[in-house]
Amino acid sequence: MCSSTPSSRSFAAQTTRSTIARTWPRPVTGVFLRVQHLPLRLQPPDPQQEYMSPCDKKLYYGYLYYCTVGFSGWTAVPRGSSPSAPAITAKYDDTVYVAVRGNDNGIYYNKGTGGVWTGWQKLPGHTYDTPAIAVAGTYLHVVVRGADGSSIYYGRVTLASGTFSGWTKVPGSTPSRPSLAAYSDSEVYLAVRGADNKIYLNKWGGAAWSGWGAVPTGSTPSAPSITLAEGADGTELFVVVRGNDGKIYSTKKDLSTLAWSAWSLMPGSTPSPPAVAGYIY
Asked: What is the pLDDT of residues 170-202, one digit of tens each?
C-alpha cells in the first residue's frame, strides 16, 4: 500500500556538465521505472522572492512522494552554500547525506533526517569540484578530485562514529568530477571521464580497487552519472549522460552477466547534465 512513509520518498541532486559524443537512436524501455529525480538546488527555487537573489549559492532541499508525486516545498539547508553543484545520497531509513565543495574549497558533508540537519562536518583536504558520495552498510563513501584537478582520492566516514578513514589515492586521473554508487561496504562503483573522453568504471571490494574498465561504447567530454537499481534479473548498474545535442542517453550493465545494453535515448533534453538515482530492495 502506498503511503507517505520515509521509504516512499525519493532524493537526487543537481549535477555538473556532462555530454556524450554520439547520437544513439534506441528509445529508453523501462530504464527509469525505478528511478525518481529531485533537485537539490544551488540557486533559489524562486528568485523573485526578496530574500533571495539569482546569485544566491545557498543549498535548498525538498522531496517527492512516490505515490502521490506531492512535493514538500523547498527549505534552505542551514549554513549551506557552495560554488559547485551539491551531491546527495540517501539510506532506506530516510537519512539523507549531502556533500559539497565549500567556498574555501574544503570538503563538507551534512546529514538530514525528517528535515532536521545535524550540521556540516569538514573532511581533510581540498577539491575544486563537486565531491561524489554514496551510502551503504556502515559507511558514507566519498571520492573527490584532488587539488591538482585530475587525481582521484577515496575515503569513507563510519556512520556510527563519524570517524574518517583518511584519503587514499585511486590510480588514474579524470578531468571531470567522479560519480559513485554503492551496493554494500564491499561493493562500491566509481565512474569517471577519462583523458580520452571515454567512460571508465572501477569497483571497490572493501580492501582494494579492481581496476579500470571502459564502457564498451560511447564517450563524453564531461562527468557521467551512475546508480544501482534492481532489474528483472538482478542488480543493474546504470550510466546516464547528456549528449552533445542536449539529449539524455543511458546504458546499463547487468552485474550478474556483466553484459551491457545498447545506449538508449530518453525523451526530452537538458542544458545541464542529468542526475540519476536508483533503489535497491
From this structure: 999 999 999 999 999 999 999 999 999 899 999
Output the CA torsion sign for 42, 142, 124, 169.
negative
CATH number at 140 reads 2.120.10.70
- Let me know if residue 277 belongs to a domain: no
CB-based contact 93:6 (threshold 8 Å): yes
- Residue at 77 is within a domain: yes
Nearest one of 265, 254, 257 to 231, comparing CA atoms: 254
- pLDDT confidence of residue 273: 74
Specify the 3-state DSSP secondary structure of 8.
helix
- Cell numbers for 274, please give them: 542529468
pLDDT of the residue at 246? 81
Q: What is the DSSP string of 211-251?
A: --EE-SS---SS--EEEEEEETTEEEEEEEEE-TTSEEEEE
Predicted pLDDT at 223: 92
Q: Give every residue of the chain whose pLDDT is below 50, as ranges.
A: 1-55
Structural domain that includes position 64? 6-269
Burial class (CB in 10 A: 0-12, 13-18, 19+), 7: exposed
Residue 57 lies in a domain: yes
Q: Are 81 and 59 in contact (CB under 8 A)?
A: yes
Tell me the Ramachandran region of residue 114: left when phi exceeds 0, alpha when psi lies from -120 to 50, beta otherwise.
left
- Does 239 fall in a domain? yes
Counting the structural domains of the chain, the total is 1
CA distance 50 to 144: 35
Amino acid at 182: A
